[in-house]
Design a protein that fits this description.
Number of strands of chain A: 20
Structural class of chain A: alpha+beta
Number of helices of chain A: 24
Shape of chain A: globular
Strand content of chain A: 5-15%
Distance between the termini of chain A: 31 Å
Radius of gyration of chain A: 25 Å
Largest sheet of chain A: 8 strands, antiparallel
Oligomer: homodimer
């Protein structure tokens, strides 16, 4: 099933997932920025004419959701994405009695469409190169000072941008975000039209959206109707979209040239060997162990009864997806051949750079990074548990930390704040605090007790924070008390604290607020150490390497993924697995044959009821060799005419290792075929108006 | 807390954990066999006179339990070992209402002593070198044939040995087991006096036996009274022990020479780099992920209520111990320096062997092993789930498999059977089947559903066995049905099937027996492939390497651990951790200061009640630099006079990596100090008769 972008679990991953310019290319790989798309090469290779107008149209119909990709598919703001990308909205409208994830949803009128409180839909309207301004701000400073100055400058640029009248702006807000490309080889301001009123229109049942569940996740052949429809609103009315994408329900032919426009979350293709070693040894194994144990706790909790099963479904799905991804990432990192190749590439670049007079003073940035990763190893666990989400693993705690820190940070000048509390970040935080997302105390107890128990295990019972928190209470008792007594599940209470500022925080006796206040000094301390001792020297060193790379390999390269809009091309084709050819299309018939009647191989009743009226030869899923990664979930797969011929929802198992390098022989994207969408909307869900809207030109 | 021997979780670990002769020694490392103890070197180094009589006395007082070590400490058969080594016996006498693990136990008379149904106590009475006979049996055969012939010969030797009248035999049974030392450089028959009637005499509460629980496990400083007392019986009477060990309750001095006599389970100090790579990449990560998830399931299950907590305690303790061990083993394997060192040592040995004319025809055994490990990688998951315990993770299933296979194997000639069903193995199997160990259906459901879910994940939903078992039932539903409907929890029913042979098995409609019958063909197939394609070529190649190693490095070396009796020496001393000196002794006072009142830092009420009468300066735990590993749990720590001055129960965290090589700077053994045993038996448990028995000369 899912390929949402996985925000890094451990604090250090975030730091070392810096973008890197790529080495010379092979095959059709590449997550290209729209301003550097290799149209010329594509023309030579495929005879396709991809001009600026074509690119602009596709870009303006491409949508970024909170952690997924999507596209506009009607003039009335209809957004096509994956079912697993809207699971959090479905969960938001579920309860202990009813699960929209299980049951699906169809709004039969605009009035029935349900607001997704925490969702946004961003459209990239402009990209502005600000590299020169950023470099000017850091010139001549030492590592730490440069790190601070860079952040301040980017904050100021974002803030000024949002205050200026921007082209393409209508009723929706303008959102400006700085983007670091090519390891600091380039800095950009990306300007988005942001829709904050996004509503749920359609979702099939999880039984067919994620047919095969976790066992089939990242597998192919597949049979998943992993689709969902949202609608963007402006001023209470459906947003008007000038040029939505058309869906070509016939789908693509085998071998056809296809494009993916979407937001790959993060790749690590050009980390140094030292950084890969950090991931392999110190980040991935503990992260995987935590995820596995939490999975076990969720699964056993869900055995208590139907209510527990319902409320566990969404967090468990996300967790299992992340677990599978990281398992394969660890496998890739354990491949000594990958490490050897990285070392060879590194040695070659170092050697070539050493011959360039312009780089005589470059020093040894690779060793600088190695030194920083040694520090990162030492800080990894305390950072993960105190500042990352591993220790205080609770939705209520996350609210509390945002509230506690926002109160303090908002008293600082904009440029001095922690980056997530700058003025331009506040509206999104407020939206998230205001969203009426259900909080289940028993789940809070489960995740928080888990986090506290592991914090005690990894930081040790004698760590000051552990000792203070658990002096007289067990982790389970403390977690139970906090989950039951905190009132932060109520949006009104959250907003009161948000609006009340430091005085309200100081006066609060909410136990979760008190906990967040209590541990904040230690959490900030370790964060600061990471920023100063790991992030700062790493950033300086990676900038140097990026410049060296440009000098040696030129600019016909693409940056590592950064959850910003990218375009790539490929073709519809299968692959060979252990000598067996895998065909690129699946058909509906086999899904019925494969069903066992038991989750996760249970086809929903809605489909069984109309089974004899369905065209069993309808294409269901397909694979292409486009170069994608988590975050590309929900991306439109378009043909050379710019029409949608598929909906990306997954990669095959080999694609996960694509994080470190693309292998055209085996890496495949998996998409929903448009024909099954039409068959479903027409015969299973009887949604003629939706179909009409999708078919309108 | 615990250091019982960890039987390998994955089938392949068992194969590659073959003994290896060690490279030249450093410091006081070495798990020496009693027939090759370096008394001369010790005399030179420490001036100690360790003669044959000294060795014989210590050997005959050393005891091997099912998966731990122990020693005789009274003429009436009293056995001193660890609390965590007798947890399974405590669990055997516990129920949903009462936990002897939590409450502790003290028999105030012989009549109150409780039989440990599944326990044995072995004393090593003779070691016979049978290398020549084994080599003669395999001469000139190809790998697979040699593998079969070797097993047949060892079976025949064991069988003949048990039928012969042996010296030192009394009322107890003679148990003969073949032992492979030095990678097949030597084969021995070890002859044991086996006590099968072993009873529980004393156990403190888990709260003090495992004070600090999992967070403190493998840590030091520590405060654990990890002791327990059993008694061996013969013909219904306490066994008469001619020369038990005396306990010197004063304990040792810092820097004093001390010995550990016990049964280290397994070390991997001289695996080839290819074998270490297999462990690092293909065995450890999935094993750890499974253990972590199961841990989460147990912990969440235990939250349901006191009954669930009680019945979960014993399996959870064992699991958490194994998890911590394997985590540190993976850390050690991820140390590229270890791998580089292994490769260097390998290269040096290869180079030196290549100059020896006698080894001209040796071929390339290192490459042979690498080829075998490649096969092992491919078979690892199917073997683990179908033949190993990972898939059918259930006590009832294990009974069922033994019964189903025993019925079939017992129809074969002794030498043709699977090794665990030879005639000499049957009494122990029957004892285990007859033991009235409580089986809790809810725990069976939990572990079996877990195993089935992961089997589906790792083997895939289309694997024939998965498809057959889960065609119409979910893993949870199937596991629930099997756990509730199987009658194999009843020893009488197990024994009826055992005695009824194949006819009884064929006629049984017990669902667990049917499952074991159903999956046996596939399980046997993968096992056979492992034996023929991994074990056989590996065994031949490791024999060659062992001979080469003897030729190059001589015979003043010790073999890898094999859960057979070993003796090693060292001194009482602390170490330096991150620049901080760790003193070798702890005292009672600090335990009270460290207690939080909450598990696992809750001191039992029995201690709190007499707190003011206790000598708070009593030494509690101590560390030495003896070279131990899992399986050494319960070993006596003796001084140069052969008196007990400590009870080994753990190693420090660095000691875990000792699996791959001993580091005298940091590896430490952790022992219970005799003074705290006396203080506890005297003032806390008021057991004057026990103390009198321990003090008697």
């Amino acid at each position: 099933m899912p390929r949402p972008w996985l925000p890094p679990l451990a604090a250090f991953t975030a730091l070392i997932v810096v973008a890197a310019a790529s080495a010379p290319l092979h095959a059709d790989e590449g997550m290209w920025t729209y301003d550097n798309f290799p149209s010329k090469k594509l023309g030579e290779q495929y005879g396709a004419n991809i001009d600026a107008a074509w690119l602009d149209r596709l870009r303006l119909a491409s949508v970024r959701l909170s952690n997924c990709s999507a596209s506009f598919v009607s003039k009335d703001g209809l957004i096509l994405t994956n079912h697993h990308c809207i699971e959090s909205c479905l969960a938001e409208h579920s309860s202990t009695e009813r699960s929209l994830i299980e049951d699906g949803f169809l709004a039969r009128s605009r009035e029935q469409e349900l607001r997704c409180g925490a969702q946004v839909a961003d459209v990239l309207v402009e990209m502005q190169d600000v590299t020169a301004e950023v470099l000017a701000a850091t010139q001549g400073l030492d590592d730490q000072a440069a790190n601070e100055a860079r952040k301040r400058r980017l904050t100021a640029l974002e803030s000024a941008c949002e205050k200026s009248p921007a082209k393409g702006r209508r009723g929706s807000a303008l959102k400006c975000q700085s983007v670091t490309l090519y390891n600091g080889g380039q800095y950009f301001l990306y300007k988005y039209r942001r829709h904050t009123d996004v509503r749920l229109v359609f979702a099939p049942e999880a039984g067919v959206a994620a047919f095969g569940g976790d066992p089939d996740n990242f597998q192919f052949p597949r049979w998943c109707l992993d689709m969902g429809l949202l609608r963007a609103y402006e001023d209470g009315k459906p947003a008007r979209i000038a040029a939505p994408l058309h869906i070509d329900f016939a789908g693509p032919a085998e071998g056809e040239l296809v494009f993916v426009s979407g937001h790959p979350g993060a790749t690590d293709r050009l980390l140094t060997a030292a950084q890969l070693g950090l991931l392999r040894d110190a980040v991935m194994p503990p992260t995987l162990l935590r995820a596995s144990e939490l999975r076990g706790r969720y699964i056993e909790f869900a055995q208590r009864g139907p209510t527990e099963r319902r409320i566990t479904q969404e967090p468990l799905n996300g967790l299992e997806n992340g677990l599978k991804v990281r398992r394969k990432l660890l496998d890739a990192l354990l491949d000594d051949e990958l490490m050897a190749r990285k070392r060879r590439e590194e040695a070659e670049l170092r050697q070539r750079v050493s011959t360039l007079p312009a780089f005589a003073g470059i020093g040894d940035p690779w060793s600088d990074i190695a030194a920083a990763t040694a520090t990162a190893r030492a800080l990894e666990q305390s950072s993960t548990f105190l500042e990352g989400g591993a220790g205080f693993n609770s939705r209520l705690f996350r609210y509390a930390r945002v509230l506690v820190r926002a109160a303090a940070e908002r008293q600082q000048p904009d440029s001095e704040r922690l980056r997530e509390f700058t003025e331009t970040s506040l509206p999104r935080l407020e939206q998230q605090l205001a969203a009426a997302v259900p909080v289940y105390p028993e789940l809070e107890r489960l995740t928080l007790a888990f986090g506290l128990e592991r914090m005690r295990e990894w930081l040790g019972p004698d760590h000051p924070v552990v000792r203070r928190l658990l002096a007289t209470e067990s982790p389970q008792a403390l977690a139970t008390r906090l989950a039951n007594e905190s009132k932060l599940g109520d949006p009104a209470i959250r907003l009161a604290l948000w609006n009340g500022g430091q005085a309200a925080i100081d006066a609060s006796d909410d136990p979760m607020i008190r906990l967040a206040r209590d541990v904040d000094p230690e959490a900030r301390t370790v964060r600061k150490r990471v920023e100063d001792e790991v992030e700062a020297p790493t950033r300086v060193a990676t900038e140097k390497i990026a410049r060296a790379r440009f000098a040696v390999y030129g600019t016909e390269v693409y940056p590592d993924a950064t959850f910003t809009l990218r375009l790539n091309y490929g073709t519809v084709r299968g692959w060979t697995e252990n000598g067996t050819a895998i065909a690129p299309f699946t058909r509906l018939e086999r899904a019925f044959q494969r069903a066992t009647g038991q989750d996760p191989f249970r086809i929903p009743a809605s489909w069984l009821a109309v089974q004899d009226r369905l065209d069993l030869q309808t294409p269901f899923n397909l694979v292409t060799d486009n170069d994608i990664i988590g975050g590309n979930s929900g991306s439109p797969l378009v043909n050379v005419r710019g029409d949608i011929v598929g909906l990306i929802f997954d990669g095959n198992i080999h694609s996960i290792a694509g994080n470190y390098g693309f292998d055209p022989r085996q890496n495949r994207s998996v998409a929903v075929h448009p024909a099954i969408m039409r068959e479903a909307l027409d015969k299973v869900y009887a949604a003629p108006e939706l179909l009409r809207e999708l078919l309108a030109r």
